[in-house]
Each structure stands twice: as C-alpha cells, then as structure tokens.
Amino acid sequence: DLRLAGGDSRCEGRVEVNIRGEWGTVCDDAWSDKNTEVVCRQLGCPQAPTNSVKTSSFGAGIGTIWLTDVTCSGEETLLGKCKYSIEEGDICHHKNDVGVICSGEAEELKLVGGGSECEGRVEVKHRGEWGTVCGVNWHRRDAAVVCRQLGCNFTNIAQVKAASFGPGSGRIWLSHVKCVGDESKLWSCQRRMWGSGQCKHQDDAGVICSAAPADLRLMGGNTECEGRLEVKHQGEWGTVCGEYWQKKEAEVVCRQLGCTSFHGEAAMVKATSFGPGSGRIWFSDVTCSGEESDLWQCKHQMWGNPFCQHKQDVGVICAGEPEEIKLVDGQTECEGRLMVKQWGEWGSVCGYYWGVSEATVACRQMGCGSLWEDGVQAKAANFGAGSGRIWLSHVRCTGRESTLAMCHHLMWGFEGCGHKDEVGVVCEDRNTGMSSQFRLVNGSQRCSGRVEKIYDGRWGAVCGEYWDLRAANVLCRQLGCGIAVSIPLGGYFGEKNPVWKEEFHCKGTESNLKHCTKVALGNQNCPDCNTAGVICTGKAETLRLVDGPGHCEGRLEVLQDNVWGRVLDHQWDMKEAEVVCRQLHCGDAIGAFKLKEPAGGAVAWDSVTCEGNEKHIENCSISINGSSMVSTHHALDVGVICSAEHSRSVRLTENIHRCAGLVEVYQKGEWGVISGDGSDLKDGEVICRELSCGHVINVGRQAVIGTPKLWLSGLNCIGNENVLRQCPYDSWGTSDAQVKEATRVVCSETTNLRLVGGANECEGRLEVFYNGSWGSVCSNLMSSHSISVICKQLNCGTSGQLEASFTYGLGAAPYWLDRIECHSRDSSLSECPSAPWGHNNCSPSEVAQISCEISKRET
C-alpha cells in the first residue's frame, strides 16, 4: 500500500508505504522526479507536472523507514516494481523522509516590481493564487535557482532582502527555503509546507539576475581617476558602502576605469574624503580577490546595507607614485625636510612609523646613496616646519624598494599629522660618495684639534653639544690617529663659522663616522663657544678585523711595511684573541676561530703566542714567515669574535610571552638589566622593534630579585632607532651599581584575545591577555570597524555585532581595555587606538559581548 501524508490533499505529502501491516516512510536518498511520477501514477493523481520535495518538507514521519535508494525508470505502474533497498540500521533518519506533490496545475514563478523580468520581488503561484516568498535566511544559492528557473542570466546574481522591491500582499507561500543551488525549480528545494511560515511581507525575498555590469565613475576628485565611487543601476547613479572595502576592491575599480598607475597601485579612501554622495547606496559588502576585471564580478550585496549611510561612502584614488621627491632646507640637496609632489603640488611626509628603512629608500630614489647606515632619519621638523599639504603618512618600507611609492603607505593628504611631525632625511652626497669629509685643525699636532667637516666645498665646525668620546674614538680611527685621549669642549681649539649642527650616535667601535647613526639638528641653535674637539693618541692601529659583520668580528689582518697581511693559524687560541679585542677596544674575546678556506693574499705572520695580558699584539711572540711577506694560498687564516660586536643584545625574561617581560642586555659575556628610572614609551618602541614584537603597549618598572648586573642607565631613545644600541644613554657597564627597579616592556604581539561564555569560540565576552592575566574589554566607542578587526583576528569571519549586556554572562575585573576605536586599515587589536591599558572606569554591564558572523567554525 502507498499513501501521501501531511499535505493539503491526498495528492501531496510525505510518502508512506505499508509493509507487513505497518506504515513507514521512504528515505530521500537517490530520489528523482521519475520516482515521483510513479508514485502519482499509482495513486491516480495528476502525473504532470510533479515535484519531489525532500528533507521532510511535510514534517518528519514516525515508525520504520522502510525503503531507501529507490530508483525508477518512470514507466513503472507501482512503486514496488522499482529498484530499492530495505533500510537497515541508522543510515537514514526521519529528517530525510521524502515528500511528493502531484499537482494538476503547474506552480508558476515570476519577479515583480523591478526594472525587468529578471529582477524583482519573488512570487510563486500555488492553486491559482499568487503569493510571496519569505526572505529570512534567503541566500545566493536560492536566488540562483530562481534565475535558472526563469531563464535569466545567473552569472552575476544578487539576493535582496527586506522587501527591497516593496512588500507583497496575499499569501506567503514559501518559507525556510534552503537550496543546494543546482535545483531546476524553487519548490524542489528544502522548504516549509505551502503557506505554513510565520513570515511578514516586510521580509519578502527579492532577486536581481544581472545580465550586464554596472557603469562606474569617480566623482568629487581632481581627475577622473580619483573621487567618490558611484555605480549606475536602472539608469540611476548611486554610491557604494565602504564597509569591508579594502585595497583589492580599489584595484579592480582602477583597472575597470583604465586608471591603473605605473605600479598598479590604488588607494581606498573612506569617510567621505570626497564628500558624501546622495541618492541610493547601490552596493555594499563588496569583496574582491583583486583579479577581477569588473567590480560586478566581485561578491556584493545589491541595494545597500540598511546600516550604511552616505558618510561611509567609499572613495578611490587610482595613483601609484608621487611625481617627484626632494629634500629642502638642508645644507645640501641630499639632506633636509622630505617633500613629495602630487598633482602638481608639493607636500611633506608624516613621520609616523618612519625609520631607517624608509630613509634608505628615499635616499636611493633621489640618487643620494645610503651609506649613512642605510639612510639617516631626522624627525620633528629639524629643518624647519613645512606648510601646505602633508601628502604621505604611515610609510612602511622593507628597505629594498626603489621608490617610496612601492612601500606601504596611506595616500594622499592625511589629516591626522601635524607639521611638527614631518620627516627629514640625511643621505650621503651624490657627488662625493660621502656625507662629508673630516679634519682636525688648530691642534698641536696632526691628530688633535677642532673637528671640521666639508659640505659643498665649504669647511665648518661640528657642534660640540652632543659630541662624546665614542664619536671621537671613531673619528680618530677614521683619520688614522689611534684612539681618543680627550674631547675638549667650549671652543678649546677656537671657533669657526659655519657650525654644522649634527648629533652622532656611535658605539665607539665603528671604522668610520658614516657607520654611526646621525641625527641632523637642522635649524636648531648650537651654543656659542661649543665646537667639538678631540685629542687622539696619534698612533694608527696596526691590526684590523675584516670580512665580518663589524669592526669587532672577523678575519685578522696586521699592517706590516704599509701593507695589510694575513695571520696564520699556528698555536692560535683565546689568549691571542683576548689581546686583539683589548687593542681594538672591542671588549672581551668570546671566540677564536680558523677559516675553512684561506682568504688568499700575502701572509704577514706565521704564528703568534701571547700570555693574554699584553696591551698590544706586537708585545706577543711573533713568527714572521721569512724576512719579507710571502704569498701563499695553502695555510688558513685566524679570526676573532669580540664581545663588543655582540654587546647590547636584548631579550625579555620573567615572562609568560616572548614579547613581554623584564628587559635584559648582553655585555661582557653576561646578561644585565636596564635601570627603571626614566625609561619611557620611546625606549620601549625601539626594544619591541628590535625583538620583532610589534609596537610598544606599556613600559614600566619591576622590582628585581637578587643582585643583577646593571648594564644600562639613562636610556633616552628618540623612538625611530632600529636597535637599542643606536639610542643615547647616560652610562653603560656600571655593573657594580645597586639596582632596585629595572625596566619592563609589554609589546603589541602579546595582545592575545578570546571570546568566552558563548556556545563556541566565535561568540562571547571579549577578553585580552595583559600583564600576565586575562581581563575584560569594555564596549564604549566600539564600532563595526572594531568588531570586524576582532572577528578577523579570531579567524571568525569579517564582521559581527555587539549583543546586549550579559548575553554571555557577567564580565569581571580586571578591566584591561576600553574606548577602542579601530580603523579599516588596522589588522589587529593592538594597532587600534584606545584608552590606556588598565586605566578606565568600566562596569560589568559595559563588557563587550560579541557574536561574529561565523558563530561556529568548521573543524
């Protein structure tokens, strides 16, 4: 026996069969329209057209599931004559019971209220009456089935909700529609029974089956390749919502408009940089891969986002590089305040994130070299504050780019930077290959006197305000004058005009001042009677370390008969290495090695034997290979590693995370701390940068246990140095000093976050890990941008929403963070502005309760 149950008539419903006196259901596995035709024929119901409806559209049955894998040819008179299997075990469930509609009248489908027959509100005809389709949980796959059934183009479709084509009337025939996407008819999709939903007409579903891309234009800019993005649909121009808009989307727009720049760069500009638009917001939630030729090919929502307003209209600038760059108000054309030219107008560059790598690229682009430690940066308007536009900001380079335009940056006309934060740069001179040449004058002998340097053929004195013994040692070595004995200040060797106002930050072991970090003081005044001077020993060094990373590590060479020669490996050990390091003022020896391959060239010494306490290598027992230097390519060379080359290495200890903890530096083969007095965020920024730990979040003091070495005090970083050793400081190596509090740093890479109290890891109360413990985050000022950053960082989609207080339980102290204001460019919570960590007046009701768009990730 066979029957249809749960429908409005005997010719529609859930398929049930009677076997051995018991009614049971049929599994929908492999069920086809041919099976449905056989059922309708057996029941004497209309056989054409028919529809098979799967997944318990007429409600789940009860009892035994008798049949599965039913396969009919369509010609059978009884279902029992088709091929089938008797259901065994738990392979099929009642949620998979098959249903059938044997309709005497074809259901019809149409789109109404749109500009063509291929767009509009979805309506279906059932039993002679037209009705609508509920748009709740209406998806792109459902829209694709509608377009296919109507014979419309479904390559670029858009599902539209919320009665975008106006609310319908009458019955709402279909609800809870869930299509796979390959069905031939809408009513073949999983759905509720006809007219059984609890939907309202304000939620009627709509569809746009697009046959052609929309027109694009950019409005409000200076050219046709920049401005507010507008699209034309149904003959009407409208804007695009900037929510989730990124650089890839901007690149597609520029490509479509034929505005691609030389480097293929594009910039997205939000927040009505070109003024708010008017009329409809046609597109929202646009997501491109970046390879599309047309914006219409990207994923998008038509008719806009009801939560988007014209103040969020997106803008685009199709421009990849400034026309020119130059340096102004310096002593030469290779130093000064950095300016870029865009659209015929010169403007400056904001110093946010500017460092040595960025300066290197600027120097290279201008043909000014990069020998001053890959380009030297000078901030804070050292060459005088500029005026006019600040064109570029947030420039971040690797140092290998050929132009600034190839670096990551915000373009153009950034308004969050002041002229006092503009960038200045000092490069080497393009003509001499050096930033300057030095000499000592007015001294009693060649190796003493006032320090002077030449710029553009003009000699001037160096300001003594920031001149120290480390820089003086480097200059003495550079001039072949041994080491510095003293640095008389106050115009000891007389005054000289002009005075070049520069500050050198040297380790003291460099071979040339060009290897020190230099900050140009620009127009700042140098105190009268304060030119730099030095008195050197006058004896040039007779040994050096070459082919290493610096002056204090490498292969040993000695000067003999005015020729540099090699030293061979006979009897070479740490005693000899100790003497070499002492003579070179490079600290302690931490390694004595032999090269695997000979360097080639002349051999100076055949062997060296030292006691280890000699001041100079010449005081050791030396064996010279013959009366003159002998060329050989068979013996191996010796090398030395001194502690100074490895001094001031940085690490964080007593930590839960590698990027947070007590700061320690390495000196003389031992780790020691930095004094906690005076350390600030600028010092922390350099430490975090050197450790590849992002940006600084907090710098504080920590009580020390025991008696650690105090290696560094009075640290005073500018904030743009790449490593700690480039920072100024008061004293280094005062290991016997007593220290009670040392410097502690927390960097942004420690910003771990989580959602707790929800059904899965993509919903719940927001907590961050800080200062060794998890704490709550409050929702004040939290916008959709902030929630998007949080969800992305958690790998929970690209958007979410704030839920009501206590949705996921009661938050608790500590309250680490509040007043978060993320922007679209931010990629993690650590990059977003906020109130200071741990300083807020939150309450449990203000704890952020967030649900991301992916409430449960696949595993």
Structural features, described:
The chain contains 8 helices and 56 strands. The protein has 859 residues and is mostly beta strands. The chain folds into 8 domains: 101 residues, Mac-2 Binding Protein (Roll), CATH 3.10.250.10; 103 residues, Mac-2 Binding Protein; 103 residues, SRCR-like domain (Mac-2 Binding Protein, Roll), CATH 3.10.250.10; 103 residues, SRCR-like domain (Mac-2 Binding Protein, Roll), CATH 3.10.250; 100 residues, Mac-2 Binding Protein, CATH 3.10.250.10; 103 residues, SRCR-like domain (Mac-2 Binding Protein, Roll); 103 residues, Mac-2 Binding Protein; 102 residues, SRCR-like domain (Mac-2 Binding Protein). The strands form 9 sheets. Strands 36, 37, 38, 39, 40, 41, 42 and 43 form an 8-stranded mixed β-sheet that branches. Strands 1, 2, 3, 4, 5, 6 and 7 form a 7-stranded mixed β-sheet that branches. The longest helix is centred in the N-terminal third of the chain and has 11 residues. The chain starts with a strand and ends in a 7-residue tail after the last strand.
Task: Report the sheet with the most strands, covering strand number, pairing sense and barrel closure.
Answer: 8 strands, mixed
Regarding CATH, which class of the largest domain? Alpha Beta
* Cα radius of gyration in angstroms: 38 Å
Number of domains: 8
CATH fold-level assignment of the largest domain? Mac-2 Binding Protein
Compute the average pLDDT: 76
Q: Based on the structure given, which CATH architecture of the largest domain is correct?
A: Roll
CATH superfamily annotation of the largest domain: SRCR-like domain
Shape call: elongated
Would you report the number of β strands? 56
Q: What is the terminal-to-terminal distance?
A: 45 Å
